UniProtKB/TrEMBL annotation:
Annotated signal sequence range: 1-20
Organism: Sphingomonas japonica
Protein name: Alpha-1,2-mannosidase
Domain Glycosyl hydrolase family 92 N-terminal per the UniProt entry, residue ranges: 27-280
Taxonomic superkingdom: Bacteria
Keyword line: Signal
Signal recorded as keyword: yes
All copies of domain Glycosyl hydrolase family, residue ranges: 287-748
Length: 771
């Protein structure tokens, strides 16, 4: 079975062969490492289990943990060490597992020390001038230690390479206390062992964002150990020697506790020290097997990972000004980090039930930031990584649901553990969008059953009231207005997939539920609002108010009143028609923010009036002018957003990248279209920001985008052709892209107020199609 799986994957890779080995050099992993981007610069393979990256600070308060959610912050002056797990752009901190730091000299501190006091611990100052990062590679000079540190990573293995100063003793500190969610009681238990063959293994269980998370590691060195110590800092007295192995263990030494630090001594070295590390959520044997599954030294692993990145990035060939090329290829890179592999090389994985399961015919994936990524990142993967969607991602979602104690699909999960963060059941549109686009390789009936189970689990997020009342009741469930409209969209995708499968009973049920968004729309104010269980809208009402646990999720009425991606025409009709919808959209973007302060709310960044590009509920809004017959207004707004929200600099992302969603928005927008309603099989046309682009598709097909006359001055569409024929509609179908061909834009300096304005030219809307 493993052979056939590998052979099938190889065929898919050949079918979607890269256009050229380009794109790799354009990526800048430092984009988003400052400001609110929360990305990390370290080494990771495409969808890799290991994200080996520097941590600049882990001793954090609640606010500091948010700022350091990726471990690294570009404006920090010191590096505490290099840990093996990181989120890319999340709005919440966790991970930072198994921190390693080189130390040179005779004294080996086991505390990180104070960043403001050089030499107070193993932490080291560094300079960006002696730091570099590329896909799958990171390097920095640690100034205090005098050590040149390099990192690379395979799928399940991370490899360090350290060049120590000549004549100084080389040491490594392994700090099992360190994490990126460093509140009291975070480390429940940890252990470390040394084995006769020189392998070091260990484990820890943490209580952080995901409770009871278990992770194990295996570590090997390229040079023999000259000495070591396993230290518990829970004790007030100095630790002398190492604790003997536990009963029944073959380990030469081992220790366990809540606050462990290991020191490894190598003497004076005449060559670089390489450290190979693998992790496993299953057990230490799994970590060892993962270590053995990717043999080779630093250069071997680095070369394999570089080749994988060149292939993945090379599926799109972009011609654009240098800053835009860098932005777009980095966006594609960030979109291919998650959902990361979470299963071992032997097929074992730990599920949401905290039990170990085995899947021999796919690699189990986790790190699903679904409230963010269902919008654009997952639809992007159906274009540029369809084999990953069919073979691993959808199967992983189904497998997780089948062993979930609650019987539902993941909400926000990582390493197989559920966090219950954010709202909706947005694994549903991910699966439906993939199925409707023709992605197969999974059990569709099992998938639909899992989707229905998630959508009918009454204890979750007010679903009981939603099914009875047609809306979530705010007096019984917080953020009810947001939940109602998001559930309605998810329900529509269930109906679409069920209809395509011939399961008409399911389709009818969820098509009816897809209209529940109407129950939260208030025609008096023109906003989506929260209702109480007695049917009344909650008062007082302020459409600009943003408070956690209130009527809306990370937003307010201005952002959430537009979230009807599957039925925009009906929404606009309730708002008073096209002109009223356009006026309200303009009012959102042009809102006078004088006197309004959102500093109390994390994730509220990238404001253009009440449009908040740094958070996802606004991401589709600029494209909505198309639904009201004013596509030139979409073109204007996209020009405004791209110019103000994205730069090829460390602080170049206006908000959290959220596992690739901010990046995927830019990537689609750069090509000239965006998936406003995943599941509709349409992409809404905006305007291109590239001179040309070409997608490598399965079966050797190519789809090209060309923008004639594109310049800063020529920001409007003057005409569009598809395969040489005029395209007079504001959308392109997924099937038209997958068939191959050319989408050609003619750009001009003034808006064309006639192109794609009629009702028949507008993108999909549920009730418009029904009529």
């Amino acid at each position: 079975m493993q052979y056939f799986r590998t052979f099938a994957a190889l065929l898919l890779l050949i079918a979607a062969a890269p256009l050229a080995a380009q794109g790799y050099e354009e990526v800048d992993p430092f984009i988003g490492t400052g400001g609110e981007g929360h990305t990390f610069p370290g080494a990771v393979a495409p969808f890799g289990m290991v994200q080996l990256s520097p941590d600049t600070d882990t001793g954090c308060t609640i606010r500091d943990c948010y700022d350091h959610a990726a471990g690294y912050r570009h404006d920090d002056p010191t590096i505490q060490g290099f840990s093996h797990t990181h989120f890319s752009g999340s709005g919440h901190s966790d991970l930072g597992d198994f921190l390693v730091m080189p130390v040179a000299g005779d004294m080996v501190p086991i505390e990180p020390g104070d960043a403001k006091i050089p030499g107070s611990g193993y932490r080291s100052r560094f300079s960006h001038e002696r730091e570099e990062a590329r896909p799958g590679y990171y390097a920095v000079t640690l100034d205090d230690a005098g050590v040149r540190a390099e990192m690379t990573a395979g799928t399940r293995v991370g490899v360090h390479r350290y060049r120590f100063p000549k004549g100084k003793a080389a040491h490594l500190v392994l700090d099992l206390r360190s994490s990126l969610y460093n509140y009291a009681g975070k480390i429940l238990w940890s252990s470390v062992r040394r084995w006769p063959n020189g392998t070091i293994t260990g484990s820890r269980e943490t209580r952080g964002w995901a409770a009871g998370r278990k992770l194990h590691f295996a570590m090997r060195f390229s040079q023999p150990l000259a000495g070591h110590a396993f230290v518990s800092t829970e004790q007030d007295v100095a630790y002398k020697g190492f604790q003997g192995p536990g009963r029944g263990s073959d380990a030469l030494a081992e220790r366990s506790g809540q606050a462990l630090v290991a020191r490894f001594d190598f003497g004076r070295l005449d060559r670089p020290l390489e450290v190979r590390v693998a992790i496993s959520s299953v057990d230490e044997a799994g970590a060892i097997a993962n270590l053995d599954s990717e043999p080779g030294d630093f250069d071997t692993v680095h070369a394999a990972t570089r080749k994988a990145w060149e292939e993945a990035l090379g599926r799109v060939e972009i011609t654009a000004p240098a800053p835009m090329r860098k932005n777009l290829y980095t966006a594609l890179y960030h979109s291919l980090i998650a959902p990361s592999v979470a299963g071992d090389a032997d097929g074992r994985w730990r599920g949401p039930d905290n039990a170990v399961h085995v899947s021999k015919d796919f690699a189990y994936r986790s790190t699903f930031s679904l409230w963010d990524t269902f919008r654009a990142q997952h639809p992007l993967l159906t274009l540029v990584q369809p084999e990953a969607v069919s073979t691993d991602i959808v199967r992983s979602l189904i497998a997780s649901q089948q062993v979930s104690p609650d019987g539902i699909l993941p909400i926000w999960a990582f390493q197989g553990r559920e966090t219950w963060t954010m709202i909706g059941y947005h694994a549903v549109p991910v699966i439906a969008d993939a199925y409707l686009k023709g992605v197969r390789g999974f059990d569709a009936d099992a998938a639909l059953d899992a989707m229905v189970a998630s959508a009918t689990y009454a204890p979750y997020g007010g679903l009981g009231d939603y099914m009875k009342l047609g809306y979530v009741a705010i007096d019984r469930e917080p953020e009810a207005a947001s939940k109602t409209v998001e559930y309605a969209y998810d329900d529509w995708t269930i109906a679409r997939m069920a209809q395509a499968m011939g399961r008409t009973d399911v389709a009818a049920t969820f098509a009816k539920r897809a209209s529940n968004w109407r129950n939260s729309f208030d025609p008096e104010t023109g906003f989506v609002r929260a209702r109480k269980s007695d049917g009344a809208f909650r008062t007082p009402f302020d459409p600009t108010a943003i408070n956690y646990g209130s009527d809306y999720t990370e937003g307010n009425a201005w952002q959430y009143s537009w979230f009807v991606p599957h039925d925009q025409a009906s929404l606009f009709a309730l708002m008073g028609g096209d002109a009223a919808a356009v006026a309200k959209l303009d009012a959102m973007f042009d809102y006078d923010m004088s006197g309004i302060d959102y500093s109390h709310a994390e994730d509220i960044a990238g404001l253009i009036g009440q449009y908040i590009h740094g958070n996802e509920p606004s991401h589709h809004v600029a494209y909505l002018y198309n639904y009201a017959g004013a596509p030139w207004r979409t073109q204007e707004r996209l020009t405004q957003i791209v110019a103000s929200q994205y730069q090829p600099t460390p602080d170049g992302l206006s908000g959290n990248d959220d596992l690739g969603q901010m990046s995927a928005w830019l990537f689609f927008t750069g090509l000239g279209f965006y998936p406003v309603a995943p599941g509709s099989l349409e992409y809404v046309i905006g305007r291109p920001f590239v001179e040309s682009a070409e997608l490598a598709l399965p079966d050797g097909k190519r789809f090209a985008i060309v923008a004639e006359g594109l310049s800063e001055a020529n920001a409007y569409i003057g005409g569009v052709t598809l395969n040489g024929k005029p395209l007079d509609r504001a959308f392109i179908r997924h099937s038209e892209i997958m068939a191959g061909g050319e989408l050609r834009f003619t750009m001009q300096a003034t808006p064309d107020k006639q192109w794609a304005t009629g009702p028949e030219a507008r993108p999909y809307s549920m009730d418009a199609v029904a009529k």
